[in-house]
Amino acid sequence: MVRREDLLREEDEAFAGFLDEVRRLGAERGDEPVLPGGWSVRDLLWHVACWCAECASALERIRLGTYRGWEEDVDALNARFLEEGRRHDAATGRAMLAAARNRMLQELALLPEEPPREAVEWFRESGVQHYREHLEDVRAARMRGPGSAAG
After folding, report:
1. d(CA 20, CA 87)
2. Angle in degrees, CA 121, 91, 7, rounded to 5
3. Rounded distance, CA 71 to CA 85, Å?
4. Residue-level pLDDT, tens digit, the chain, 151 residues
5. Residue 126 and residue 14: Cα distance in Å, rounded?
6. Which of 136, 144, 143, 141 minimizes the C-alpha distance to 31?
7. Residue 45 contacts residue 97 (beta carbons within 8 Å)
8. Total-model pTM
């Protein structure tokens, strides 16, 4: 079994690496389409925040015993998140990410020291693995430099 403290350590390290790479890309490029699909950093932060919020909700349902699986259309959900995020400024996106991540961490803290398998899967996929996936996107954008949008 996986221990909660190990999950928290993994998540913290992955999140710090992700945010560091976002900062290195530069705030001045926040709304520039630099990521795959023409996403901006602002879009990406909102996207990650929404998945942290989804994870928090799933963890809460697991904790309450009401979790019955998840059958959403990921592509449709990502499209909805992108549309929602583009209605907000970068500061709102950063605040949403902080709040959603905090709620995800709080929900994990309320689970047993050895969380159920579904909780571990949600937490790793929506947090650690997701941060690492998008860290690579941000790193590639930074290496391309200003003015070279991703398609």
Report:
1. 25
2. 20
3. 23
4. 899 999 999 999 999 999 999 988 876 767 888 888 888 888 999 999 999 999 999 999 999 999 999 888 999 999 999 999 999 988 898 999 999 999 999 999 999 999 999 999 999 999 999 999 999 888 888 887 765 555 5
5. 11
6. 141
7. yes
8. 0.91
